[in-house]
Write a structure and sequence with these properties.
Layout lengths: L7 H8 L5 E5 L5 H14 L8 E5 L2 H15 L7 E4 H11 L11 E3 L1 H14 L9 H13 L4 H7 L4 H19 L2 E3 H14 L1 H10 L2 E4 L7 H10 L5 E6 L14 H4 L1 H4 L4 E5 L7 H11 L20 E8 H17 L7 E5 L5 H10 L4 E3 L9 H14 L4 H7 L9 H13 L4 H6 L1 H7 L4 H17 L5 H11 L2 H8 L2 H23 L5 H12 L10 E5 H4 L4 E6 L16 H15 L2 E15 L2 E4 L4 H6 L3 E4 L18 H11 L19 E4 L3 E11 L2 E8 L3 E6 L5 E3 L2
Parallel strand pairs: 1-7, 1-8, 2-3, 2-6, 4-5, 6-7, 9-14, 9-16, 10-12, 10-13, 11-12, 13-14
Antiparallel strand pairs: 14-15, 17-18, 17-21, 18-19, 19-20
Helix pairs in contact: 1-2, 2-3, 4-9, 5-6, 5-8, 7-8, 9-10, 9-11, 14-28, 15-16, 17-18, 17-22, 23-25, 24-25
Length: about 725
């Protein structure tokens, strides 16, 4: 091996093997090279047996890369090493020591789909509402409790006075019982059962401690309580433990990551040494200066300052656009310019805080015929919730569309099963009519003798009511009414998971799409809107490899691009509205910004909008505090409209207000749905809903700039609504 290509700090980390070591590795500082070189050094120079080395990573990709690099350095002897993810290492422990466990080598491992089936069975067996106890929410809660070492009985007893949480505990208890009966483990169990096995068997613990002389843990800042406990169990008295991580890149708190593990390393392991890897091999000095300026504002961190010997001349540029629509076009305009200058599309990436932000950039790229790819997710119009709402709109526009009908008849769940849908399809086929036409005919529907025919009839009435008003109502308001009256929004709100909140954000963006359409096409109808989307969603991808990459910042972790566009730098967007009032969450948002900035190699462009359209409403936006923290390290670019080569198909945002007013006047015969931005509603107030009639407010909770209210309706029971959107009025 040639150790001369390591810098002084990397060499220090390589040669130190006297005890616990924390390699605090900044972004782009070559941490994987150091770890793999250190493993090879131990084997080649220190005569350590490969079987004495344990290396734990977080992803299969990282494990494969580490195995490949070590194999190139030392050859096939690397096969004797244990290199893998936390889950794969724990699986090895359970298999190798199965005689000490009730879980013999023939146990099953349940994946996500198996978990969904099991939770649904538990909810059904306990005779609980599947609408209230959503499987996604329950699975997320069970995982959280397991990794915090909270068993079902403890959770039930501590939440006995809360009807909902107590039932969650009962589901958790039955879920665990069924796993045991099925001789099955979920992914969380792989780690927990391995911990339990080691803790209860001194023979196993002693064997593992003696076997692994050297332990390596990558991405240590992302470890949770269970993973930390496992590492402690495997370590000797004065362990030769090397952990690698960066407290400034800890961005997975929502997934259970505990940043205190890396911050407290020196307390947890006596005589620990810390080596900083601050030399960056990825970015220019100008980019690193901006990243350092932002992250230094986090009080709870181990201080380090990235630097580089790379050359650079272009200062990081920041531009504040007048409107979010102009931001997307301005970014795409710049991409075209850079491509003309010689950069390939694959050299460029657009990073955003939320998935919903991709829509306007996708449309701008398609209009300019620029190939693009969404990394770590689906294109906007391919996302389930968007396809569902569009299918509703297609059915409203065309009741003969059986494909759209089948997609939404039981979405959200209305108790209309596949057997019922098949009966409708067969009857419609024999009558040579559409499925919707058949269910709209009361006699024909009654003849089918379907148990859920009342729900089917209500569905038909709802679609008809929207069909009657589609040509008079403002499109964005029509969609808002649809997602409320169909129950789609309420279903996602009940689920209350990160995934469901992301889906709500995407639906909000679809409403904004409709508002943009209205601005550009004051006379446009629903059919025109749907036709335009069909053209966008069916656009060809002729060169996916040489394409601009679009992704959330979380998806960008571990990636790098020559040119990065970080967009949407506004308060309540980035940092997000959910983090503003919590210091820990705000620090994580700042770390997320740091991760985004350090993805750029050569050029970095930042942008925001003074006004942004969300849920069809254009509201002023404040510049992100992160921009202020960057100070003079960025160059502010003035928004000169003459620089924008506006396409005739794009919207001149400055005319938004007048166009909206014209649209409202044009549809004055149709009363606009109620907007409750200033409605003062409190617990105990009586309200009337245009569809569900009278009810009483029983709960009111602050949600960002809005309020979530729960109303007990006389005819419908409890309903959860967002105050700004709910079509309600106070009963005085």
């Amino acid at each position: 091996m040639n150790y001369k290509d390591l810098n002084p700090r990397q060499s220090e980390a390589l040669f130190y093997n006297d005890g616990p070591l924390l390699i605090l590795a900044g972004a782009g500082s070559g941490k994987t090279k150091v770890v793999t070189s250190k493993i090879a050094y131990l084997i080649e120079e220190k005569n350590v047996l490969p079987s004495e080395i344990l290396a734990i990573t977080f992803t299969n990709k990282a494990a494969s890369e580490m195995k490949s690099r070590v194999a190139k350095l030392i050859g096939n002897t690397s096969l004797d090493m244990w290199i893998g993810t936390f889950h794969s290492i724990c699986l090895k422990i359970l298999y190798n020591f199965s005689k000490y466990s009730i879980y013999k080598s023939n146990f099953s491992i349940y994946d996500r789909n198996d978990q969904v089936t099991l939770v649904k069975d538990c909810v059904k067996e306990l005779n609980l509402s599947k609408d209230l106890y959503k499987h996604n929410s329950i699975i997320a809660k069970i995982s959280e409790l397991k990794n915090d070492f909270i068993d079902p009985d403890t959770f039930i007893n501590s939440n006995y006075g809360d009807f909902y949480l107590r039932n969650v505990g009962e589901i958790y208890s039955l879920y665990e019982k069924k796993l045991l009966e099925n001789k099955a483990l979920d992914f969380d169990d792989l780690i927990l059962k391995a911990i339990d096995l080691i803790e209860k068997n001194e023979e196993v613990k002693d064997y593992l401690k003696k076997r692994f002389s050297y332990i390596f843990v990558d991405e240590y800042q992302d470890t949770n309580k269970a993973q930390y406990r496992l590492i402690k169990l495997l370590c000797r008295e004065n362990p030769k433990l090397t952990v690698v991580g960066d407290n400034d890149q800890s961005i997975y708190k929502w997934r259970g990551a505990d940043i205190s593990n890396i911050l407290n390393f020196e307390k947890d392991f006596k005589n620990a040494k810390v080596i900083l890897l601050e030399q960056n091999y990825r970015s220019t000095p100008e980019i690193l200066k901006v990243a350092n300026q932002v992250i230094k504002n986090n009080p709870n961190r181990k201080d380090k300052n990235l630097w580089t010997e790379n050359s650079g001349k272009d200062q990081v540029k920041y531009k504040q656009f007048d409107h979010s629509q102009e931001e997307s076009y301005g970014v795409v305009n710049k991409i075209e310019h850079l491509n003309y200058k010689g950069y390939e599309f694959k050299d460029m990436a657009i990073l955003y805080r939320t998935n919903a932000q991709s829509r306007s950039f996708e449309e701008a790229l398609i209009r300019e015929n620029i190939p693009y790819k969404i990394v770590g997710g689906l294109k906007f119009y391919d996302r389930k919730e968007i396809k569902d709402i569009l299918a509703y709109l297609m059915l409203i526009q065309n009741q003969d569309d059986d494909i759209a009908f089948k997609r939404v008849i039981n979405e959200p769940k209305r108790g209309i099963g596949l057997t019922s849908v098949d009966k409708i399809a067969q009857a419609a086929n024999s009558e040579s009519m559409s499925m919707f036409s058949l269910i709209s005919d009361k006699e024909k529907l009654d003849e089918l003798n379907i148990r859920s025919r009342n729900n089917i009839a209500k569905f038909a009435e709802m679609i008809k009511s929207f069909e009657e008003k589609k040509d008079q109502a403002i499109l964005s308001n029509l969609i808002e009414d649809l997602i409320i009256e169909s129950g789609y929004l309420e279903e996602l709100q009940k689920e209350n998971t990160i995934e469901s909140r992301t889906r709500i954000d995407n639906i909000k963006e679809l409403v904004s799409t409709a508002a943009d359409f209205e601005k550009a096409n004051p006379d446009g109808k629903l059919e025109d809107f749907l036709s335009g989307i069909s053209l966008i969603s069916d656009a060809d991808e002729n060169d996916e490899e040489n394409s601009v990459k679009l992704m959330t910042i979380h998806a960008a972790k571990g990636l790098e691009y020559k040119i990065v566009f970080l967009v949407g730098l506004e308060e309540n967007l980035f940092p997000s509205s959910r983090s503003i009032d919590n210091d820990e969450d705000l620090e994580e948002e700042r770390r997320l910004c740091y991760v985004a900035l350090t993805r750029a190699e050569e050029l970095l462009y930042l942008s925001s909008a003074r006004n942004r359209t969300i849920y069809g409403q254009t509201k002023p936006a404040l510049e992100s505090r992160f921009i202020e923290e960057m100070g003079s390290s960025i160059e502010r670019v003035e928004d000169e409209r003459k620089d924008l080569k506006l396409n005739k198909n794009l919207v001149e945002v400055k005319d938004y207000t007048s166009q909206k007013e014209k649209a409202i006047k044009r549809f004055k015969s149709k009363k606009e749905p109620v907007k409750n931005n200033n409605l003062d509603v409190n617990v105990g107030d009586k309200v009337v809903h245009k569809l569900w009639k009278q009810g009483m407010v029983v709960s009111k909770t602050k949600k960002g700039s809005d309020y979530e209210i729960v109303v007990a309706f006389d005819s419908k029971g409890l309903k959860r609504l967002m105050l700004s959107m709910a079509p309600i009025k106070l009963v005085k």
